[in-house]
Amino acid sequence: MRTTPGSPRPWLRAHPLVADSILAVVLTTASLSLVVLAGGGSAEWQTGATRPYDPLGLVLAAACTLPVALRRRWPFVLLLATIVPQWTLDAMGYDDGLSGLGPLVLLYSVAAHRGLALSLAAIVADLLAYGVDAGIGRGPMPWTDHVVVVVVALLCWVCGRAVRLRRAYLAELMQRADRLERAREADTRAARAEERSRIARELHDVVAHHVSVMTVQAAAARKMLDADPEVARDALTAIEEMGRTAMAEMRNIVGVLRTDGPAELGPQPGMQDLPTLVEQMREAGLRTQLWVEGERRGLPPGIDLAAYRLVQEALTNSLRHAGPAARAWVTVRHEQNELSVHVEDDGRGGADGPARVAGKGHGLVGIRERVALYGGVLRIGPRTGGGFEVRARFPLKDRP
What we know:
This protein is α+β, with helices and mostly antiparallel strands and 400 residues long. It has twelve helices and five strands.
């Protein structure tokens, strides 16, 4: 139910003791007023005369309804406590007014705020107390009156249990919503971390490869600038083209970081671009050969990119560490359920191998992450007979 602005209901819900005290005062005032107005005479439903009211009767009547003020703190104890004044009123022949409403409110409170065992004990105690009270009362009552009293008590208990179950259900829904929200936030953080890692790997591969090639070509151009300006000019042209290519790839990768709309990404490189990569390495001074074995088939995009970046990183390391007279070989083998990639060189593998395996750069770490991501097997280390090699096998599942 909606509450109007300025309504006291939210404040009363925040201060339950005040609301219960108001309820207790209202019940007590109504009960005492009814007793006083009756003047000790007989009511229509009573079978015998009632005792004229006196201070003792008023105190006993008030003792049946005032405990309602603390119904949320000790409902079961107060329910048992109101049985004694209720018995005393009936045993001494006083008009009990509305004193019977106090135990009903406390019975409802036990069912609404306590567990099932205590609430069952409360309904049993209330019915037993009513049975004893009927035996010590002023006279016999029609059986229909007893049925009405029992039904009313059971309704109060059932309503209290329904409220408790509904409150527990709503609390469970809120906890479930909180858990789902926390799980969603955790998934979002994990996805963001994975995306940052992926972008870092892509940026490293692009920057490391192109900058390494540009550095080698710039060194060659510097050496040939006076001896052969034409060769130096060709090297500078290659550096310019390589720089433009690097900027284009970096713009494509960084495009995923835009927050003002979908990124306009170009196609990612793949194994079909290996001839171009090998040609770039040859222009940079690394004599590279490429062999492709087996029937070429369409590769999953992730494996296609991972295998290309592996070859790119391995050739870049050969260009940087193998030496000016080194040669490199790239062998790609397409099998039915596996893609095998082998990159090797005959450079200074024996001297620089440990450094290249356990270097401080992120290139080889990125290679390991890419291969592990797709369940592949990777070997990096010195090559038999000198040099360095990188071997990787990517499993291909559900190939047509």
